[in-house]
Design brief:
By secondary structure, the chain is an alpha+beta fold. Helix content is about 25%, strand content about 25%. Strands 1, 2, 3, 4, 5 and 6 form a six-stranded mixed β-sheet that branches. Helix 2 links the parallel strand 1 and strand 2.
Length: about 220
């Protein structure tokens, strides 16, 4: 089963100054900067609020992307999106200035990714939040098991959504499985129909005499 990293990711987004996620609004200003989505190009909470959403922000895809590598392991992929709005362009700006702004945004998001990976690696190694020293519950920590942080890859998406730049981070995770093991508690065994009573051999009524064939 795919692990749920949302609790850890949302906590990181709260602690990380550049994101500064807060579920509640502050002084009438939206401070939410963490979203659960299906896909970045589908209707979701971020897309519906992109005109007023806080920048930068993070979105975690809840879609499942998995591959069975053998009878013992399933390889899952977690996709995390970093989104950052470009400053409003003006006709007075040159193409060079626009390119420089785009480059600065990309470099900033690249730094976000590497800071997140460093946080997850330390948390996985020590079992404690490297910023607060607090611990997560066992179920939340189990979500880090098998996470292949050293093989993470990230890529900027060429498309810009209404001024938003997008960078996608993919992290693989190996989860154990056993195809030879079936959890019978998840199944219902159908109840057999009551058996039809069988008459003893030789019993019955003789159609010729009307007498019991078993008692001449």
């Amino acid at each position: 089963m795919k692990a749920n990293l949302s609790v850890i990711l949302e906590r990181w987004a709260e602690l990380y100054d550049a994101i500064g996620h807060n579920r509640k609004s502050k002084d009438g200003k939206k401070e939410k900067a963490f979203y659960l989505i299906r896909a970045i190009n589908e209707d979701n909470e971020f897309v519906r609020n992109q005109n007023t959403a806080k920048s930068p922000c993070v979105a975690y895809s809840i879609l499942i992307d998995a591959e069975g590598t053998n009878n013992l392991v399933v390889n899952y992929e977690h996709t995390i999106y970093f989104l950052m709005r470009s400053k409003q362009t003006s006709l007075a700006k040159s193409a060079r200035q626009d390119d420089e702004q785009f480059m600065n945004v990309q470099m900033a998001m690249d730094e976000f990714v590497q800071d997140l990976l460093a946080y997850l690696a330390r948390l996985k190694h020590t079992g404690k939040c490297p910023i607060t020293g607090q611990t997560y519950d066992a179920a939340t920590m189990q979500a880090l098991a098998g996470l292949q942080l050293d093989k993470a890859n990230w890529l900027s998406l060429a498309t810009k959504y209404s001024g938003w730049n997008v960078l996608a981070l993919a992290i693989e995770q190996n989860q154990p499985r056993n195809l030879n093991c079936i959890n019978t508690d998840q199944y219902t065994v159908p109840t057999a129909d009551p058996a039809t009573p069988q008459q003893p051999s030789g019993s019955g009524t003789d159609p010729n005499t009307g007498t019991d064939a078993g008692n001449p």
